[in-house]
Amino acid sequence: MKREYFFPFVLSFLSVFRNYTNFRFTSSLIRRGASHHLPALAQLKPPFCQCKRSDLHGITENRTILNKSIFCRFFCAFVFLFVFSPSTWAEFSVETSAVKIGNIKSVIQFTGEVKPSEETHITADVSGIVKKINVENGQTVKTGDSLFELESERYEIAVRQSEARVERIEQECSEKGRDFQRKQVLKEKNVLTEKDFDLSTREYKQAQLDIKSAKAQLELDKFNLSKMIIRSKITGYFTDLNVFLGQSVNAGNRLGKVIAIDKVYIYAKIPENFINKIKNDQSCIISYGEEGKVEHINLYGDESRSFLVKLSFENKNHYLKPNMFEKGEITISEFRNVPLAPIEALMDNSGIKEVFIVEAGKAKRKKISISGISDGKFYSPDLKENDVLVISGMDKLEDGSEVKSFEVASEAKILGNSPEIKKPDSKESPLESGKTQGG
After folding, report:
1. Number of domains in the chain
2. Which of 312, 330, 390, 436 could cross-link 288 (Cys pair, CB 3.0–4.6 Å)?
3. Rounded to the nearest 10 degrees, how much is the dihedral formed by the CA atoms of 396, 400, 405, 411?
4. Residue 26 lies in a domain
5. E strands in 279-361
6. Which of 89, 104, 127 delimits the end of a domain?
7. Mind listing the pLDDT tens digit for each residue in 403-416?
8. What is the domain extent for residue 205?
9. Residues 260-280: pLDDT tens digits?
10. CA-closest candidate to residue 414, choices 384, 388, 383, 393
11. What is the bridge-based pairing of β-strands 401-407 and 91-98?
């Protein structure tokens, strides 16, 4: 209860209590009819006692008069309470805002991790000692550019040895081939036994296989020698330098990586109650204003019942860096030229959405349905243009309360518009471009 109504309420209550007490006391005396109680009756102020000591024969008639008096005083007390009730005559000052026509999107907000569109680890294909480093972190590289060089002497020697082995085996194979031809002639003349001819045939075929093996080894040694220069497999930016000059590396050791970030992906986890509202190629936007689209939706949820969604964005100015966390929203539906109201007017009563509409100086409570919420405003088909909604002071209102409204003049307040998002250009550092608007 408000402070200004407390003392009138107490006075009214005491008056009713006094009336009731006197009524009970007087009624008791009348019912008992005891003459020795008449002095006590005489002490009561009118109209509680209308009888005199000598009027014992009229006590019944005076009891009727007393009851009417008690009823009148009860009635006056309750009227007094009703008049001072804040719900019957109080007028509240509230802030209001009119419903405006505009556009709104129904969105799902997300926070995701940025990943490059392409990423490759630079590794050593063979073991060796780092002889030269041709790249630094952040440097632009193209496909085929030399990044590292290893000492190649051992592999050059291996190539020369393989070449010599091939020459030797080819010579041996040539001799065994001529021997096979001679023995074949002798076999046709029945001079050579079958056993000697089979032995010559096996030796000749083995020599041919040895040539193939030696040539394969020579190709492998040449391939290993070519891997002394470690090259980039994609065009992008070199990062994660993980080696120094003179270091001995083994095959498979990571020396760094190259990433392509002119286009990036953001991987966001979407809860199960929203995943069926997302489709491939749906538009999305991140905090600083760059638009993208849904690229892929994983159909298998994780332990938290969330699904991984892959979103693609152009990143020519390289504002987005790999492993950054970025906020954004995916557009589910869009409504144009619909009545929009500020989110401050919305009340949640155990899951039921309600608003107070001011009509003829009174606040009327109304249940509504919500079709979209975004940027501090909401769209409800149950509202119409120029409806005046209470946006401040709803907690002290009841349905039908009289109000004195003060309409908020700021359009940003009425529509809940978010501040304009500044998009950093390629010449301006993201740190100098100001804070971005969260999704």
Report:
1. 2
2. 436
3. 90
4. yes
5. 283-286, 291-297, 306-314, 325-342, 347-349, 352-359
6. 89
7. 776 676 444 333 33
8. 152-227
9. 999 999 999 999 989 998 999
10. 388
11. parallel
